[in-house]
Every structure is written in structure tokens, then in C-alpha cells.
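Q: Predict the assembly, please.
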Amino acid sequence: MIVKPISYNDINVNKMLEIRNLHKSYPIGDSSLHVLKGINLTVEDGEMVAIMGSSGSGKSTLLNIIGMLDEADSGEYILDGLPIKNLTEKKAALYRNKFLGFIFQSFNLINYKTALENVALPLYYQGMSRKERQELAMFHLGKVGLTEWSHHLPKELSGGQKQRVAIARALAANPKLLLADEPTGALDSGTSYEIMKFIQDLNDEGKTILMVTHEEDIANMCKRIVRLRDGVIMEDTKITQVRAQQYV
Amino acid sequence: MFDLDLWREIFQSINKNRVRSLLSGFTVSFAILLFVILFGIANGLKNTFKEAFGNDALNRVFVNSGRTVSASEGLQAGRRIQFKNEDYNFIKDEFQDKVEFITGQINKNVNASFRNEKNNYNVRAIHPDHQFIENTEIKEGRFINQNDLNNTTKVVVIGRLVEEDLFLQTKALGKYINLSGIPYKIVGVFADDGGDSEERLIYMPITTAQRVYGNNDDIDQITLTYNPELNYDQALAFSNLLTSKLKDRFSVSATDQRAIRVHNLATEAKRVNIFNLALTSIILIIGLGTLIAGVVGISNIMIFIVKERTKEIGIRKALGASPRSIVSIILIECIIVTTIAGYVGLLIGFGVLKLSGPGLAAYMIKDPYVSTSLVISATITLILAGAIAGYFPAKRASNIKPIVAIRNE
Ligand SMILES: Nc1ncnc2c1ncn2[C@@H]1O[C@H](COP(=O)(O)OP(=O)(O)OP(=O)(O)O)[C@@H](O)[C@H]1O
Ligand SMILES: [Mg+2]
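A: Predicted assembly structure:
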């Protein structure tokens, strides 16, 4: 397959991200495991994309690279017009902070901080004043319905509540792109739909969302499904979104 | 720049991770505590040793006389050698450049009384130099001076305890004390850290004693200090020469060990110095040892802390923390914990020394103490070591890919 290199004239302001011929392999002992074998993907502003594929197909790897938590071996990745390549750690930190929101399957809340403090943390790294931070964090906790739980530690919250705190935290910094790696993977279906409702609401407000999921019903609540197999995109289809509201 | 938020973050982390903070603090406290106690004990030993020698000059030479053991130059054995004023003058003139201070001495036991108080004391009749040889500390008035000797005045300088015994609560200075029936004017009161017996002495001009107790010019003993610039070998050579000159002067056989006895403290002084050197080395080794143990401890803890916090570091990075903020949060936390813990160790250490000090006296440890500045330097060393030891793992952790850090369990 011949891949045309991206020229900067091509960059459409509406493109949230563009990936060309992306490769990634992990060293395993002496050999290496080639996980991503030339991924090409373009996501427009405001899309809601589900990434699917069998276990070990490289979904998380791809999402982590998009989220700048990991680096590709080769290929191009352009995020909102900015080529992501050889960035200094300082610059990368700035982009993670301002551009990207991350939701993990295992929540990844800081265990000794309260829900409110966890949500306020990205704002701290934005240099916002303490008062503003707390107000904004409180606002986002309110949006996910956790006002009452703001002063609880993660260990005092249920899985669904923890994930809602994580969503509030991902949203607090007002990122352009929200990345979620199996956000409902650790939750029962009822709670999963609740979480999906929040995510759909966010998408309705204009946020671009990429999420990895195993579950077809969750994927169907997105607007586009990308399927990975053997390190390449095997299928990429737009679908009609199923609203989560009706299941809540 | 004072960043209130940064400090809040750090204090929260210290406070919420109490076990971790306490464990790392404990190591530092313990190291400093050990440092203070061991150092204190070593210093206490040193004090005991110092005290054993009092504050008397260590460059002293004692000259005593006795009976001859062997006949010589036609004189019989068993002859008694008696020093006179002229012998005192002879030494003074002959060894002008070697002798620093010199005094003759006559000892007498007297019944002393003031009003209704009576007691038995030793009188030491001496030359004015005696004050510098014994390091007598004048509390009130003055010591015996040359004028007293020239005029054979009936004056005395009494020890602090004599004043306490006889004068009760009143001042002795200027009053007259009765010594075996003769009144003497008290011109001075002295203190001496050589112990109680030293403070129950009465000093008198040597000429006065000579006139009162026999109307002669006998001297029982001559004590002198040699020029402190003489080294050990020179000091020994000096006392050997002094011995042979005195033996010649009294026609005593060169092999006679009894008739003229010259005892030079230089030999002891040398031993004292060697012991002091050994003690100082031990103290240094103890100090360095504890510090190294502390440094190793704090380094391990820092590595452990960074490892434990790796996941948190990954999360913070995913949320946009710069590597610098990660390093500073870890380092400042380490410095705060070490500082507080070091201070606690220092306080406990000082407390232990203070409480156990009196009890330790029985084990040859007197006034165990450590200078605050030394302990503070030790603490600062630990803080710096902790900061350096923490910096590298923190730096490494701040630079690993966030996803690798987050996956770390
Ligand atoms: N850090 C790593 N070192 C070595 N191999 C890795 C590493 N991370 C992932 N892999 C391997 O790469 C492959 C893809 O992993 P990835 O986590 O992207 O899969 P996934 O599609 O998200 O799977 P799942 O659905 O189980 O989460 C897997 O075979 C995995 O074992
Ligand atoms: Mg995965």
C-alpha cells in the first residue's frame, strides 16, 4: 500500500487528528512483537469513534499513542494540526494538559486525594488559582451527579462513581479530545449505560471522543466503529447512534 | 518563589501517606539520635579523662629530696638532702630560658580557727608563681605576691571551702584567721577544680612559713613548669640535666634514685595526647559511620518512595504534570521529612543525653554533650544526601512514558 505523506496544505482545520502508516512494536526478549502495522486513521472534529478488536489486537496501544502517553516507532501523527514527533517532555505535558482528556478502565484516581481534589488536579497543572480550581471541579462533579461525594476518597466510592469522577477529571481541563480505554469495562451494564449517557452528552456538546470497547452495544452508542485486526484497520464504518438515555 | 499550591500538594502527600513518611522519617531520626548519643558518650569519656588531669599544667616538673642510698664523695649513705632558698635560686638562674614558672613549697598541718569555728587544714607555703602552676582561680582579693615574700607578711589566701567551714555565711576577705595561735590576714579566697581537698588548702608566703615554723630557709619541694615551647624530647633532656646538676650540687651519686627525685609530667602528657588522639579518631569514625549509615538508609528510602509513587507519577503526567514539577514535589517532600525527622532525632538525642548524663557518671562518662552546630551539620548532610539520592530516581521516573508509569503496580 502506498501512503501519501501528509503535506501541511492538506491539513484541514476540521481534522482533529490524522494518522498515517503508524507502526509500533514491543521488544519481547530478543525479538519484538509488532503490534501496530501501519495504521491510517483520520478523525474529524466532533466525531465519536469506537475502536474494537479482539484482545491483544493493539487497541489500547493505539489509543495511548493518540493520547501521547506512549510513542509510535514510525509513521505520522498530527493532532489538531500539530505534528507529534520528538516533543520535549515539557511540551508534551502542556498538550496532555490542554488538549487531551483520558479515561481509563481502571479509573486511575489518586487514592489519597478526595474526588474533588482528583478532579482539580489537571487544573492545578494549568496554573489555575485554588479557588477557581475548586469551583470548576465542583461544577464538573455536579455534572456527573457527584456533588454529594466530593469529599470522599476513591476507596469510598463505587466503580461507577469512580469512573464518573474520572470523567469529571478528564473534562475539567476542557480538552478537545477525550480518549477512553474501556471506560465501562469494569462496570455492570446499568452503570455502563449511565456512563455512556455522560459521554454522549459530552459529544453532543461538541467534544471529539475516541473510545476502546469490547462490547457491541457500547460501540453502537458511538457514531463510527473502527475494527482492528492483525495490527491494521480491517473495517471502518459510520453507524447510527443508539442513545443511552433510553436504558438509564 | 513561594508556591503555596506546591506546598499544599506536598503536605497533603506527607500527611496522607503517613506510614511512608514516618518510616522514612524514622530512619533519619534514628541516625541523628545515634549520632548525638554516640558522640555525646565519646565526649563524656573525653571529659572524664580531662578531669582526671584537672586543669593543672601538663608541663610540670616536681623536684623532691630524700635520703641518699649510697655513699659518694666520702659522704655516708643515709644522708638527708634538704633544699634551701639558694637551691630554688640556683634552678631559677641556671635554667632561666627553660623554666616558665617555679615555686618552692612547704607543707604544714595547722589548727585553724575563726571565732568559735575550728578545723584542721593543710597550709602550703609557696612562691607567687604557684598560682599559674596550679591554675588557681582567685574568687576574691588576690593571691600571694612578691611583696608578701619580701616583707614576710602574715597573710594567707584560703580555699573556698575553708571560708565555708569557718566563716559560715560571712565574708572571710580582710578578716584575721588564727593558725595554731598566730593571726593571719586573709587577702584572698580561691577556687580550684581539682576537687574538695584542693579547696581546703591555705596558701601562705613561703618566707613567712620559713620564719614562723623554724626560722630557717628550708624548702620541702620545688615545682616548676618548663617552657611550653619545648617538645617532648627537649623537655626530657631538660629534666635529666636538672637532675644531674642537682645531684652534682648535693654530691649525690649519679645512680642514686632516692636523694634527688625529679618527676617530669611530660611522659604522662605524651600518654594523654596519644589517648586523646585515639579518642578523637574513634569519635570521627563513629560520626562518619552513623552518617554513612544514615545516607545509605535515606537513599534506599528515596528509591523505594519513587518506586512506590511511580503509578501516581504516571497519572500526574497524563494529567499534564511537567517533569520538573514531578521532581520538585518528590524532592521537597523528601527534604521536609528529613528536616523534621532530623530535628526530632536531635531533640530526642539531646533529651536522652540530658536525662542519662548524671547516671552515666558512674561509667566514666562525664557531661556527655554534642555541639548543636555539629548535629545540625550532620542533619544537613543527611538532607543533602537524601535530596541527591532522591533526585536521580525522581528524575528517571519523571521521564518515563506515562503509560509505562501508570501500568506500574
Ligand atoms: N509494554 C508492553 N510490552 C510488551 N508487550 C506489550 C506491552 N503493551 C502491550 N503489549 C502487547 O501488545 C499487544 C497489544 O496490546 P494492547 O494492550 O494494545 O491490546 P488491546 O487490544 O488493548 O487488548 P485488550 O482488549 O486485551 O485490552 C498485546 O499482545 C500485548 O501483550
Ligand atoms: Mg486494552
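The radius of gyration of chain B is 34 Å. Residues 1 and 392 of chain B are 23 Å apart (CA to CA).
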